[in-house]
Amino acid sequence: MSRNTYIQNGEWVIISRGKNKRVIRFHIQFLKSLRFRIALLAILAWLIPAGLLYFGILKSYEARAVSLRTAEIQNQCTILGNHLNTYHYLDDTSSEIINSELTQLTSIYNGRVMIVDQNLKIVKDTYDLDEGKTMIAEGVVRCLEGEASNSYDDKNCYIEVSAPIMNGESNQINGVILASVSTDTIADTVDILAVRGSAILGVGTLLVTVLALVISHYMMRPFRRMTKTLSEITDGYGEVTFQENVYKETQELAEALNRLLERLKVLDESRQEFVSNVSHELKTPLASMKVLADSLLTQEEVPNELYREFMQDITNEIERENVIITDLLSLVKLDRTTPDLNIMAVNVNSLLELILKRLKPIAADKNVEVVLESFRPVTAELDEVKITLAFTNLVENAIKYNHENGWVHVSLNADHKYFYVKVADSGIGIPEEDQQHVFERFYRVDKSHSREMGGTGLGLAIARNAVILHRGSIKVHSNPGEGTTFTVRIPLNYVV
Fold it and tell me: What are the structural domains of the chain?
């Protein structure tokens, strides 16, 4: 039989060719699933302790059985040694009583007994193989010196015990009894226990595996429901929400997904509003130009003065269109995921002085006093063009939406980590309900007044994006009729 294995669509496909062609598909993705890993952990949690207990019981039983058998043989050898000394067996091995005891001992324990005298000569061998030979073995020599010994050979399955033959009167060691006893019965019992233990372990593992898979299947149900809910909102956000309180983790995940869903809804509504506003803002100047052009076309012999007036109005609308498009392009550049920033060391004091110098003609037209207050020299890592755009918009708005003979105060300060720019004015202020929306694109607190001022509703959005690109933050505080203060905080060192 031949077998081919390949991967297709995330599955292992095994084709066995023989009399009957079989195709076995095994999902690779299942091995990566949390369900499989939970089941695997449960199986290991059972298998490792059960396996350790299984092998521990086998080793413990074997050690205990060998210990008892060794103590028993040692005791029998001690009794036999006393009898050997009583019947002077080392001098005369013809004693039927002793020989009977030796035969009985070897028969009961399926072993071999050798009697060695103090000259290391084997005077008796129950196997009748080595009688008369010299026994030079470490255990025998140590026993003659008064140290009884025993050893267990688990590979060949036997216990070897050496016991001294003591002279009761002089306590002199006259010889050694060397007994080798088979442990086949112990090994057979261990094998039986191993087979039965393996069967119990296998059945237990099978049951635990099935139980673990079933439990993991039910444990993963909240996640499957959440996945289904996500699938339902793929084509639209709708009114679907996540409600999974089975586990603390799923509850936290559901809450996070609900917040994300709300954020996506807001972004989607913002996108739709942005498209609508862009269309409206671009359409308004075009409509004005069309009305003016149609007026010129429908009139005959238009006076030069009226012609010039209409053309001036058309030029103003074109300029307004150009400002809107320029601001939109600035926003697009600032909205890029990886904006192209030209970071360099910039003297912020000089930068603000230059911005205020450029805007002083606008302030002079409204008799607005513009003051810069620098508390210390500040040098920061910035994109000079983009941060100039942000500060220019803030100061220009403070001038435009101010009262006659008002003031604009710009202050600069810094600590060891950030520099701070505050733009405060004595203008018309922003109602509290509008303050959270002022950074949205095309949002105007007073639309009619804003258009009179020539605003596009994009200045604060541009300023906010430029500040965020520099890992900074911008906040607004205002009271209607009392003025507005914008506070900008930007790190001195730009960190990617």
Answer: 2-56+194-222 (no CATH), 66-189 (3.30.450.20), 248-330 (1.10.287.130), 336-491 (3.30.565.10)
